[in-house]
Amino acid sequence: MSADAQKRAVAKYQREKTTQINLKFSPHEQDLHEWVKKQGGTASGYVKDLIRKDMQERSRSFLDMCYNNIKGKGGRFLAMDERHDETGMTEQQFASYLNRLIGRFEDAMEIEDDEKRKERIEKIIDAIKEDRDSNM
Hints:
This protein has 136 residues and is mostly helical. 69% of the residues lie in helices and 0% in strands. It contains five helices and no strands.
């Protein structure tokens, strides 16, 4: 493949398959710009890593809230009524989904062996993440 053909192929791929966000720093935000430059690697890679960490934290905090509601409310998601908007599900779909999760978590909590219980809960969490990712 000639150099020109390869350039055209790369440009076409970038045009059709990638998205871009431009990030500008104003004069009073130069400390942020300097921080990003000091982190090594590319600014793009650094920002993507921060986004991934934030996604994991938010996912984990949502799961923690679900678990705490299960544990503290006898299996009822009293405070979860408004959360269905975040999932793209109707209230009825979300309620049904949560009820299935409640049952799975309750079953897992009855396992006496700590390692097996943790393993079961991790499988449930992995399934939740798969569901979330398939709905994004």
